[in-house]
């Protein structure tokens, strides 16, 4: 399972790097087109907006998978290790359920409803922007299952 998550993380890292590079290139082109050529590009502004949404949502799933999110462990450190382990498993299970209901089911509903709506700048269906939600939901579920199985295999956290 560890090999799977390493491969998944590497794929997400490359996706995020491409999106950030796309944002930088679009930003440079936006500045050049506005100040050098005298006409702003609507496509690059919209592309940057969509890219930052994808980076934020998919990046959140990646950080959760890497356990790099901010955590205040003051109270958890005071608990019995068995109880702390149970609470940690409960939290990961809650994240899994939330991801299934809100991100995957709700995201699918939004993607389905907005596929007929066309973005003004690039002329793409708006559903592509919202597609980051169900994809992130799948990633959150995979990572939470991985976290739970890891915690169940260890004696204490």
List its traits.
mainly alpha, 6 helices, 157 residues
Q: Please count the beta strands (DSSP E, at least 2 residues each).
A: 0
The structural class is: mainly alpha
- Global Rg: 20 Å
Integer average pLDDT: 91
Principal-axis shape equals elongated
H and E string? HHHHHH
Terminal Cα span: 19 Å
Largest sheet: none
Helix content: over 70%
Sheet-strand content, in percent, reads: under 5%
Low-pLDDT stretches are: none
Q: How many separate helices?
A: 6
Describe this structure in words.
The chain is an all-alpha fold and 157 residues long. 78% of the residues lie in helices and 0% in strands. The longest helix has 34 residues.
How would you briefly describe this protein structure?
The protein has 157 residues and is mostly helical.
How are the SSEs placed, and which strands pair?
Layout: H1 2-35, H2 42-65, H3 74-78, H4 81-114, H5 127-130, H6 132-153
Helix pairs in contact: 1-2, 2-6, 4-6
